[in-house]
């Protein structure tokens, strides 16, 4: 057992060294540093990990800083956000090395960029805030969504930056599709409410409020769900079918002409009668979505919820040995009867599920 543990440990160490060396050979200097530091944390004297860290560390720092400066010179629109990521990587390397005794022996004073990171975050906040203003001025829902995330990012870089929180709220308001909905029961059945369906649709940038609830802000769309009723078969219908069965079965043994024992086979027969009882139900609703400003119909369709009861059993006459295992199981089954309450509940659950699927599909575009 101890030998197996040692072997697994050696394999893990070898794999770590190999992955770090591979990252270095492919120019992934940052990954090579992290891999070698992690290996040295568990094995401070690992020679291969030391060699990888010694080679990759200066290359990683140079590569990151060169990338930052190149973005700034090229006036990349994300230059300061990229700078934040770069300086965070350098500082992360510092933190990792300082928690690895083996790595500290190779890089005793790792580079940090805390001052540069602070300055880059301030500029990144300005960069994303300005981008948010530009997006918001385009006056479309999609651009308002982008503006919301820009202002949120600016606030993350520098909490309270300018009016980032107020602008986030404004952008979210502009990006939100407001839907006034009403639910109408056009039947004599007190089915309850389809409110759970509406609740399942709510998410950021999509607001649903009852049409009866007066709002100072007019809706963009009107959603109407009309429950048209529930119907079920008057009684269960039973159908039957018959099948004649025959099978050769072993009934004994006898000695053959060659002196060897042979099976004695006998043909057995049976007649089986199959029964199937079914009863179905259906609930239905009409969904209409209109544009509040133009009254144009955006969606209009009937959505149903169907449910059914089915019971199968059988009887037979003749020799039971002619039946296979599934036929024997059917003959052991008893006649059962539908539960109307279960049919109704299943039908309504299916109606809700279908309504939810249809409405989520429609509003997935917003």
What report would you give on this structure?
The chain is an alpha/beta fold. The chain folds into three domains: 1-112, no CATH class; 114-175; 177-248 and 266-366, Double Stranded RNA Binding Domain (2-Layer Sandwich), CATH 3.30.160. 50% of the residues lie in helices and 27% in strands. Strands 1, 2, 3, 4, 5 and 6 form a six-stranded mixed sheet that branches. Mean pLDDT is 93; it is low at 2-16.
**Count of individual beta strands:** 6
Q: Which fold name corresponds to the CATH topology of the largest domain?
A: Double Stranded RNA Binding Domain
H/E topology pattern: HHHHHHHHEHEEEEEHH
Q: Return residue spans where pLDDT drops below 50 for at least 5 consecutive residues.
A: 2-16
Instruction: Characterize the largest beta sheet: strand count, sense, and whether it forms a barrel.
Output: 6 strands, mixed
Note the gap between the termini: 59 Å
What's the level 1 CATH class of the largest domain? Alpha Beta
Question: Which class do the helix and strand fractions yield?
Answer: alpha/beta
């Amino acid at each position: 057992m101890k030998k197996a543990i040692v072997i697994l440990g050696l394999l893990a160490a070898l794999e770590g060294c190999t992955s770090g060396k591979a990252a270095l050979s492919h120019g992934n200097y940052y990954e090579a540093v992290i891999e070698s530091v992690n290996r040295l944390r568990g094995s401070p004297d690992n020679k291969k990990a030391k060699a990888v860290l010694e080679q990759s560390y200066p290359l990683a720092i140079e590569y990151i800083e060169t990338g930052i400066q190149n973005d700034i010179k090229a006036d990349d629109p994300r230059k300061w956000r990229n700078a934040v990521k770069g300086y965070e990587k350098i500082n992360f390397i510092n933190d990792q090395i300082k928690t690895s005794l083996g790595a500290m022996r190779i890089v005793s004073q790792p580079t940090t960029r805390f001052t540069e990171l602070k300055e880059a975050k301030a500029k990144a906040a300005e960069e994303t805030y300005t981008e948010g203003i530009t997006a918001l001025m385009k006056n479309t829902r999609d651009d308002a969504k982008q503006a919301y995330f820009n202002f949120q990012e600016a606030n993350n870089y520098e909490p309270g930056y300018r009016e980032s929180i107020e602008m986030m709220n404004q952008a979210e308001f502009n990006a939100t599709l407001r839907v006034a909905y009403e639910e109408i029961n056009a039947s004599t059945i007190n089915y309850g409410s389809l409110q759970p369906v509406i609740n399942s649709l709510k998410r950021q940038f999509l607001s649903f409020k009852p049409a009866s609830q007066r709002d100072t802000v007019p809706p963009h769309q009107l959603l109407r769900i009309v429950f048209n009723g529930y119907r079920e078969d008057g009684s269960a219908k039973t159908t039957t079918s018959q099948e004649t069965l025959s099978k050769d079965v072993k009934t004994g043994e006898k000695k053959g002409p060659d002196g060897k024992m042979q099976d004695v086979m006998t043909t057995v027969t049976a007649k089986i009668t199959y029964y199937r009882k079914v009863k179905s139900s259906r609930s239905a609703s009409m969904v209409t979505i209109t544009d509040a400003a133009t009254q144009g119909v955006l969606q209009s369709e009937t959505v149903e919820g169907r449910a059914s009861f089915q019971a199968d059993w059988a009887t037979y006459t003749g020799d039971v040995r002619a039946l296979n295992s599934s036929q024997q199981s059917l003959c052991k089954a008893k006649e059962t009867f539908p539960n109307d309450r279960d049919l109704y509940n299943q039908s309504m659950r299916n109606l809700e599920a279908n309504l939810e699927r249809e409405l989520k599909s429609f509003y997935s575009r917003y």
